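Justification of resources, computational component.

The compute hours requested in this renewal are based largely on the per-chain cost of generating structure records like the one below. Each record pairs the submitted sequence with a full structure-token output. That output is archived, and it is also reused by downstream analysis tasks.
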Amino acid sequence: METEMSESEDVSVEIPEGDQPEPTNNVNHGFAREWEGCLQDDETTQRSERKRKMEKVPPLLLKGKKGRRNRQCYQPTVVSLGPYHHKRDDLAVGEKYKLVTLEEYRLSCGTSMGSLYNKVFEVVHDARKCYIDGSADEYNDEEFNRMMLRDGCFILFFIECVANRPNTLLMLNNEYLGALGFAHVARDILLLENQIPFIVLQVLLDLRFPEEDRGEKILNDFFNYLKYGEVSTKGKKVLGMKKPLHLLELYRSHFILLSSYFSHDPNNSIKKIDDDADEEWNYVKRNRSLPSIMELKAKGIFLKCINFKNEPSTEDIKFHSHCYYGELELVPRAVYLNSKAIYLNMIAYEMCPHNPNDFRVSTYIRVMKSLVVHCDDVKELRSNHILLHSLGRDEEVVKMYDEIEAPAVNLYMFHQLRRGIEKHCTNKYKMWAAELINVHFSSPWKTVALLVATAILFTNFLQTYFTIRPPPDDSNRDIFKLLRQCIHSKPTSAPA
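The structure output for this chain reads:
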């Protein structure tokens, strides 16, 4: 792996292609190459020939002290979607509410209930195959299709109302689910075990929005609401060439663009830096944490908010090393009551087998866990308009990040960000400049005091110099006397 780290440029990575023999035609070897490509941030052109499933939360994530404490974050609290939590008695109210949203969605589409049923039935067999073996066997095709129809219309009606009709949604939620229903529904539809196949949502979305890109805009506005705390029309295509398996996978791909920062730019020259010989394959060394925000500030690295409204950002985390200071750029994020559950379920998706990915969310969470250690770190994020939270106290934000576990990260990404920061912090000239800024220019009063002290020191130097070497003519001697009078003059007392 080659890296480029200059004094005033970004960090970039290139994974060179070695002269290796062509792989044999082996399925397992193809899986390994696909995983390797994801970890090295190479876009895989096509997935290996296998059928991915709607997985459940890996059991290992539920073990340990934090795993047991976070167990409830993977369980729906208001509504069940799909067969995994269907027929739970404590979610019966949600089933009644689905019938209301089904009728509302039918009226929005301007079609009959039979047409909706038949549209979903066209993909019912493919949808059934998306679940793990045996989980949908107790439902015949008719029962399974009705489940997919109700759940799909419920999800899309909720998303559309958040983006376009919040008053209608709030009224219905208060009527059937109570005042807390809105927040819990937004949480439940993004749980790993509470997903329905996206092919069902796509059929219903196309029926509701036949015009091009209209359905994609609704999804984009809803995702921006979850990310930034407001419905934003920031342009971004959420549906690419690859169709997602479910809504959580689609939101994960929308959530963060960390990998784009670490991708190789062919226009930049590549040069090597000296790494520790054993660090290349030492997991502990490559995986060590970053300094906190206040520690970075003490070393001359300051935060900068990426304005996603005015600047079409292509990355969410970026580090710049300048001549005498550093910049860590972050996209603003909203943290609210259900952020912890959504983060945990995106991480759980990345930990599932058969899903080659680049651990983007896990890497982002690991970075934030390193940056946010004390309340002062949260305060610094808020003052720079990077973090907006509704958890009441800053201590709750620190607690939230502390309770989220990210068992695995993309070491190529995390290591490069950390090495860029460490290279800046080990430059003694930059550290001297950081100390000067933090000690003497941290406030306007300290700056004024430093300037006054410098002026006094300079005038004393001039006085000493001209005392040792008097000026040759009378005009300069008069200037020198005036300067000396200014130094020794006392301010006049104010009138009583």
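The first strand starts at residue 2 and ends at 4. The beta strands are 2-4, 12-14, 301-305, 317-321, 326-330, 333-335, 387-389.
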